[in-house]
Fold this protein.
Amino acid sequence: MENQNLILYEVKGRVAIITINRPDKAHSFNGEMLMSLHARLKEADNDEKIKCILLKSSGNKFFSAGYDLKEVTGNPANVAKIQEWGRKVNQTMVLMKKPIIAQIQGIAVGFGVMLILSSDLRVFADRPKEEVYLKLPELAISAFPQTGATLLPLMALGLSIAKNLLYTTDKVGLDELKNINFPTRIFQLDQLEEETLAFAKEISKYQMKFLIFVKSMLSIMDKGRINAYFDLEDECGKVAYDKELNSMKDLDDFIKGLHEKYD
């Protein structure tokens, strides 16, 4: 499948629909897809006719399996590109003007989870845990959690649940997510497309300035922390892969410096 067909874009009324379309690779992201997604997000945010953005993926099995690890393994240039554009996508989603609704019909892993956490509202298909779950496997696969993997769970779910996700790498299903009021709406799978679009159109009926000021005000209130903590992830990521810095004393000194810098 050509790269240009991996991120689809269409407009229905006042709603921009962005579809991740790489089902043969479980909707996993390479660098070009991240750049394309970022461009589409900016396009929708700057379009005067658009009030709301709907982010979804094709098919039923996966929402997104995250980053395409086969394309980054052993390739430092691809790793750097993924880190750069993965952060840009998530940071843009959190700070952009217009609300984003994520439509989740299947499994989300790694960066796929981050896309859901970066969205403002989340609509889930009512499916059992083996068919719909969130999972952050970074520690289990020796991949340092960056591009929002620590910040976004903290913002969306709170400290305790963020730690559970990151340390246990457990699968979290819809029943558990309902217990913490995480889903905005839940629909039957065969009604998900129609009902989510209808929900997005309802949101898009609000006055434009009212709609964008709500998200913008909340983002501005937290903007300093958001930007700083993306930086914190990048700073820790560099040291995590530094083979020269391994002693506990060095790590203690480094962490003390972080406490002072990000206090």
Notes: Strands lie at 7-12, 15-20, 52-57, 62-64, 100-104, 107-109, 121-125, 133-135, 172-173, 185-187.
